[in-house]
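Quick illustration, no need to memorize.
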Amino acid sequence: MAALSDSSKRCFCCFLSENSSALCKSPLELWSGSLPSVNVHRSNVSAQPLYKFAKAASNFQTEREKFLKIMETNSKKRADSGKKLLRVLWGLIFVILAAVLLSQHFKHVSSQQAAKPSVRLYPEQTSASSQSEKDYLANRFKPLKAVNADTIAYVYAPGTKLDEPVVQTNDNASYLVKTFEGGRDAYMGTVFMDKDNQKDFSDRLTWLFGHARGSKAGDHRMFNDVNYYDRQDYFDQHKYVVIETPERRLYYEAMGLVIVPEETAFYRTEFKNDEDFTGQLRKIYEESRTKNSAIDIRAEDKYLVLSTCREEDDTIRSNLYLRQIPDTELEEFLAQHGDQLAYAPTR
């Protein structure tokens, strides 16, 4: 390269002096700031140094723009990552709050259920006999059967003196005079089921017969209290009868008390069809001296009759008809009336 003339040297030094503010800046300042414009006069300096300087400056500007774009991209990525992290955190907070609220709700429900009074008779009452009920019934019937092998059930009406074992044999005459213990007494006898009924009380209409001893005997148990159902106040206060069998308990609600001749046409154990069955029940209900206005007569229901004689006329009978509570209604029935069904021995 030819040596610069003095004037050229002077002019180039002047150039450096005039642009020293730009050329003396640090690289970081140059990177982050705006590239200052350089006043280049072709007449003052040679073309080659100026060209190299301009090219370096252009490269510097290009690299600077790349750097800024990278920084901007990284900044956006960090912002997006921050947003995702916030969404994850909010989701976790929501799940935790939901879990806490659900936990509090279930604790509240559990405390309310625990606070509700529950009716639990011993043994526990369910539609399907529990093991505790089976154990109770086994203990209940073991001594009864030891005394009388014909024992099939036990009947009691809470609040009354109706509290008797029930037997069944192949006739309807033996237990009119035969006592449960095997003795003979015309005014005592034993409560017995009709010979044509199923001993598990599964018939549509099951009959139990027993004496009303009245003034003819000092012991007024058996079916003496059935006659008291001819008063509506007594009827309303003693609606429920419980039957215990070796397998389970059965519950009945009084429908009505009808007084009929000894040879009544109502005495039946079989029916041609549903209409025949419900037709007779409706007629009995209409003729009842006392009745339960809440009873709904249905063909699928089963009924029990407690039949006894009247003291004023031994040719007529008091027949108390009771509807068996079906298993579909048993839970609600026990919840409402369980405290009225406890057994209190009177024998």
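The beta strands are 151-156, 163-167, 192-193, 205-209, 240-244, 249-261, 290-291, 303-310, 313-324.
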